[in-house]
Write a structure and sequence with these properties.
There is one protein chain. This protein has 103 residues and is α+β, with helices and mostly antiparallel strands. The protein contains two helices and five strands, in the order βββββαα. The strands form two sheets. A three-stranded antiparallel sheet has the order 1-2-5, with no helix packed on it. Strands 3-4 form a two-stranded antiparallel ribbon. It is elongated, with a radius of gyration of 23 Å. The termini are far apart.
């Protein structure tokens, strides 16, 4: 067994993840074979964010983009109103911010 492995995540093509928390991992390096045993749960990628970000590869970028677009569209109206309200308090600076600060 390989000690000290906190979690194992297997990324599936449909955007879900098979997640093992504190699994027992065995390896046969010569045959490039790993055995993961323990309780595996199938989870959505967004359930494991942000802790799983450092494990994502280029093949997961589309799933991450889909999650970001879904998040932006679900809270877009509220955020747009909040941004517009904040923008009202900030003066236009233009090319030279020192001229604006003198007025």
């Amino acid at each position: 067994a390989i000690p000290g492995i906190e979690e194992v995540n297997m990324f599936k093509e449909d955007g879900t993840v098979i997640h093992f928390n504190a699994p027992k991992v065995q390896a046969a390096v010569a045959s490039n074979t790993f055995i993961i045993s323990g309780h595996g749960e199938t989870k959505k990628l967004e359930e494991l964010l942000p802790g799983i970000l450092n494990q994502l590869g280029p093949d997961n970028l589309m799933n991450l983009k889909r999650i970001a677009e879904g998040f932006a569209s679900s809270s877009g109206g509220e955020k747009a109103a909040a941004v517009a309200e904040v923008d009202d308090d900030i003066p236009e600076v233009g090319d030279n911010f020192e001229d604006v600060s003198k007025s």
